[in-house]
Amino acid sequence: MLHNSWTETRQLTVFHLVQPVDGGVARVVADLVRAQTAEGIRTVVACPPGGRLAADAAAAGAQVHPWPAVRAPGPQLAREVLTAARLIRRTAPHLVHAHSAKAGLAGRLAVRGRLPTVFQPHAWSFDAVEGRAAELALRWERYGTRWATRTLCVSESERRAGERAGLAARWCVIRNGIDLDHFRPGGGDGGADLGPDAAVKAARAELPQLAPFPPDAPLAVCVGRLCRQKGQDILLRAWPQLLSAVPDARLALVGDGPDRERLMRMAPPGVLFAGASRDTRSWFRAADVVVLPSRWEGMALAPLEAMACGRPVVVSDVSGARESLPPGAVAHALVPPEDPRALASAIGRLLADPVLREEQGRAARDHARAACDVRQTAAAVSGLYRELLSHEPPRSQGPLSQEPPSPSRPRMRKRTTR
């Protein structure tokens, strides 16, 4: 072992191995790096070039190394594992934190238990594929748990899905958080001097892409990579039904990705493809309702960010969704996955009822500010590192509640056997 304790004289070094480099995973890693650097931890990030992560991680204080790796496994995997192993040897970390399926695969193969290793799936790989590919992904995840000192899930439902799939992991649950200083309602001092209608109008005025839409049109916004996971095709199938109830409604899809051309071909009138946005706050603030009809997640960040901006959300009932919502919001905000009819009904109900919309937006804002602070998430991750590097045995706890974990005591579960 290369470590003795958390208080070892050599500066604590954490090695983050990451793929993908955009979207929620990149934001989670950049937030962790920022907090860990401020705590005095030396952070190293290895990720593919391109995307936003390398620049964001460097700006947050990390030492960044290029790690050429594609999203899917393939014949290049052996080279990716070898490169990761070389980077880990060169930077001599105390602990490896591998993010998402591909980095989790390569990182665990590179380290194979020789260093404390945290694997954070950010949604399960076997949910992302079908048929033989899903069978192979599940087989690997069951095997790879032996090389993860902890498997860190971002929601209780993500952990339960792993247990149902037969993963004999040593679990830890630390929910995702967001930067509440960045994501907040519009207007002066977090929107305190603007009413909801005025804040929406001000946000729409900042977005020239919305110029073709009537300024007071009911607007739904979906922020996410244009791909099968995020379910924009389900939303587009739901849109004609919604228009029968709210004829003047408009939809903005904010993001880019491999499904853009296909989605554009199937889009009805009144749908805007806004492209990727570096800062999504104006889109959230401009929306009457924010929608994320995902097929699978761990715990999506976009609904948390939208709620922190004071917007009501409609999300599909996948991992992390129920835990994201404020108490009492399930009836209005949660729909079954891949159900266009239920999705249209939920969005239409909010677009047609400004009183309900304001009520749900206010509850969403208060919930996000009370329960979704990224500083608590980062502190809990540091607490997990302390657990592993001090050689403390995992604490056995009773049934897990729906309350957020304590920042200093991340929620643990012992390894299960099957």
Can you give a write-up of this model?
- The protein is of the alpha/beta class and 418 residues long.
- It has helices spanning 23-38, 53-59, 77-91, 100-111, 131-144, 156-164, 196-205, 232-245, 260-266, 281-286, 301-308, 321-324, 330-333, 340-351, 354-371, 374-389; strands spanning 13-18, 42-47, 63-66, 95-99, 117-120, 150-153, 171-173, 219-223, 250-254, 271-275, 289-292, 313-316, 334-335, 411-413.
- The protein starts with 12 loop residues before the first strand and ends in a 5-residue tail after the last strand.
- Residues 1-7, 188-193 and 392-418 have low confidence and may be disordered.
Layout of helices and strands, plus pairs?
Layout: E1 13-18, H1 23-38, E2 42-47, H2 53-59, E3 63-66, H3 77-91, E4 95-99, H4 100-111, E5 117-120, H5 131-144, E6 150-153, H6 156-164, E7 171-173, H7 196-205, E8 219-223, H8 232-245, E9 250-254, H9 260-266, E10 271-275, H10 281-286, E11 289-292, H11 301-308, E12 313-316, H12 321-324, H13 330-333, E13 334-335, H14 340-351, H15 354-371, H16 374-389, E14 411-413
Parallel strand pairs: 1-2, 1-4, 2-3, 4-5, 5-6, 6-7, 8-9, 8-11, 9-10, 11-12, 12-13
Antiparallel strand pairs: 7-14
Short description:
The protein is of the alpha/beta class and 418 residues long. The chain has 16 helices and 14 strands.
Mass-distribution shape: globular
pLDDT below 50 for ≥5 consecutive residues: which ranges?
1-7, 188-193, 392-418
- SS element count, helices: 16
Compute the CA-based radius of gyration: 21 Å
Distance between the ends: 29 Å
Tell me the β content.
Answer: 5-15%
